[in-house]
Amino acid sequence: MDWLFSFPHMDDGSLRDLKKVIDEGFRGFTRTYGDGLEAIFEPLQFFLIQSERFMTKTPWPIILVLIALIAWFASRNWKIVASTVATLLLIGYFDMWEDTMKTVSMIFVCTVLSIAIGIPIGIAMSRSDRFQNIVNPILDVMQTMPSFVYLIPVVMLLGIGKVPGLIAVVIYAIPPMIRLTNLGIRLVDKDVLEAADAFGSSGWQKLKNVQLPLALPTIMAGINQTIMMALAMVVIASMIGVQGLGQPVLKAIANQYFTLGIFNGIAIVGIAIIFDRVSQAFGARLQKHREVVHG
């Protein structure tokens, strides 16, 4: 009756051989194509380095004013602008300004990359049920895979550094961007699309002038969720060399520095709240503008 308590499984030798073949194949792929992959990601590394250099080398009052102007342009709400400035001043006062700027630059690059990749994929999914059925399981895996697992293949391919961390963050954060772009376009009223067809709109004109504007609030929700998930990945990505607020938190965990971990954790929360409120206010303002213009 031992079989009732021991689940049938592959014998240990065969399982060991299978794992060995997969590991050796991946190592061989890394040795063969690793340098080429690094060359492909060089523009991304340049973009990330320049963004971080701008955020950390520019005088802090200028950065503070720029962020306040962006918050005002997005929200047109003085309360949000004031709370943004107050949060950043508090972060700077507790000597976390440079790490915060590194984190902000990382999130900015991740968000731009996620939008650039996610929106076209979401549009393609909205136009093809077959493509949607192919991509959805991949997104399911990306959203349910433990965060640490993302780091293994990325580190084996590209080593330790900013770019591997950036790629891991994008992989973790991009699914909401793709899903909500697809959902937003699919939810556009069929009568509106029929009216656009009746006026002789081409496929591109219908997408640009009808579907994307009507789906914009949902797409903005996707951007908001992508930013939140990217921030959630910051601490984990610090394990492979991503600088910013995540590294002090990792150091605090390793050395049991309670205050260091709490302060930097609260700073991450503050940045997350700023991004969340500003992006939500921008989406609401776009929705209100659309309702006024289109009735």
How does this model look, in words?
By secondary structure, this protein is mainly α. Helices cover 85% and strands 0% of the residues. The chain contains 14 helices and no strands. The longest helix is centred in the last third of the chain and has 37 residues, at 258-294. The protein is globular and about 65 Å long. The termini are far apart.
Number-wise, the strands total 0
Helix content: over 70%
The helix-strand sequence is HHHHHHHHHHHHHH
Mean pLDDT: 86
Give me the secondary-structure category: mainly alpha
Instruction: Note the main sheet.
Output: none
Poorly predicted runs are none
* Outline type: globular
Total number of helices: 14
Q: Roughly what fraction of the amino acids lie in strands?
A: under 5%
Radius of gyration, in angstroms, nearest whole number: 23 Å
Intertermini distance: 73 Å
Which SSEs are present, and which pair or pack?
Layout: H1 12-40, H2 42-57, H3 60-75, H4 78-93, H5 97-127, H6 129-144, H7 147-158, H8 162-173, H9 175-186, H10 190-198, H11 203-232, H12 234-237, H13 246-255, H14 258-294
Helix pairs in contact: 2-5, 3-4, 3-14, 4-14, 5-6, 5-8, 5-9, 5-11, 7-8, 8-11, 9-11, 11-14, 13-14
